[in-house]
Write a structure and sequence with these properties.
- Among the domains are: about 100 residues, no CATH class; about 80 residues.
- It is mainly alpha-helical.
- The chain starts with a helix and ends with a helix.
- It is built from 9 helices and 4 strands; from the N terminus they run αααααβββαβααα.
- Strands 1-4-2-3 form a 4-stranded antiparallel beta sheet.
């Protein structure tokens, strides 16, 4: 009915509460999250550090966000409510608009903390090294200059992005920010901004910001970039002898990455794609030279 009205030029606003969502929107999330772990440490599983493993980077994704929002609320029987709030809040363009202020009794009207954890990931879980420009002057941690692609516009929230203003930038989860989630006065950046400017003054405890959780497309790009960067590090002669390299495995991995593209991304066949293929071809040449035992 709404679709027919819209085709006739009808304009409207639809106002709905999280409780108005159909149950079948929430039930798949609840089933996927499953019952919360019995021990508190199980709420924060350790994910693999190798980018070649399947669950690498999972702690940055939307799926893990829904799981966190559910698990952290099971003990209070609020899991379904939190998942409903999360489903609505995910569609908000700017999370700062979710700041509800305080009621007459001084109680925060913001989203519950588990819902914020479903929307945002901690800065310490994000590794941007693969996307940094190569720097021959650094003895470790050189970037590979991999294009950010779909990660460029990922939102970054901080209490202060301007180093000229007194006070460091803190994550919405930092104790220095009272762990209050995102509020209207916070600053909004992007991942591209983080790479373009290294003059920010971040808190050493929380790294200064939190990022909006990655979609499946963004997470696939993040994983592929880390795989490519890991291979580049293996092939770097300053990091070890080539005699220990498994060049057959590396060559197979590079063939897979040469044909890779972000799922659902329509703008990949631009400069970013060309730069990606150039990096892959350069690494393939290095792998072939290492396999022959030539410098």
């Amino acid at each position: 009915m709404l679709e027919k009205r819209l085709t006739r030029g009808w304009q409207c606003f639809l106002l709905a509460r999280s409780s108005d969502l159909p149950a079948d929107v929430i039930e798949p999330w609840a089933r996927e999250a499953g019952p919360g772990p019995e021990d508190r440490e199980g709420l924060w599983p350790r994910y693999p550090r190798s980018p070649h493993e399947q669950l690498f980077g999972e702690d940055l994704g939307l799926a893990q966000g829904a799981t966190r929002a559910a698990w952290l609320a099971y003990e209070h029987q609020d899991a379904e409510r939190n998942l409903r709030l999360l489903a609505v809040a995910r569609g908000v363009r700017d999370l700062r608009t979710l700041d509800g202020g305080y009621d007459d009794h001084g109680r925060s009207l913001s989203l519950p903390r588990p819902v914020w954890l479903g929307l945002l990931a901690h800065a310490e879980d994000l590794d941007l090294e693969p996307f940094e420009a190569p720097d021959a002057g650094r003895w470790r941690g050189n970037g590979s200059g991999i294009p950010l692609g779909v990660l460029a516009d990922v939102q970054v929230y901080t209490t202060n992005a301007n180093p000229r203003i007194q006070g460091k930038g803190h994550s919405p989860f930092c104790p220095h920010a009272r762990e209050r989630g995102v509020v209207a006065g916070d600053d909004l950046l992007t991942v591209a901004d983080l790479l373009d400017d290294d003059g920010y003054d971040w808190c050493s405890k929380c790294r200064g910001y939190a990022i909006r959780r990655l979609t499946d497309t963004q997470l696939s790009h993040y994983r592929a970039a880390h795989r490519l960067h890991d291979i580049a590090q293996e092939l770097d002669p300053e990091r070890g002898g080539h005699d220990r390299l498994d060049t057959q495995t590396i060559t197979r991995q590079l063939r897979e990455l040469a044909d890779w593209r972000p799922a659902g991304e329509d703008h990949w066949d631009t400069g970013g794609a060309r730069r990606w293929r150039r990096i892959v071809h350069e690494l393939q040449a290095k792998a072939e030279a290492a396999g022959r035992g030539t410098p």
